[in-house]
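Structure ticket #2291
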Amino acid sequence: MNNPESVVIINRFFEALDILKASKKIRGIKTFTDRYGIDRWNFNKVRTDHKRDIFQLVWITYLIVDYGISSEWIFTGKGGMFTQIDSPIQ
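Resolution: structure written out below.
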């Protein structure tokens, strides 16, 4: 089981993923999981229950490197969700 601080980070991960989907930066969850070779079954399990201990930290790096999500925001909740140059809201 993930500790409470990890659950908050996982919440922000899925929040960012939902924003990327809404802003059409990704088509959907299947697109994301297929692109990175993530088992969609496990991904959906952790999406519905953030306390499940199957979340992979590397998933966060995909958002940071490929989609411009702020590492400071995803790990601490401080600052904006996107790095300044990658913000879909300009």
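Closing remark: The chain has one domain: 4-83.
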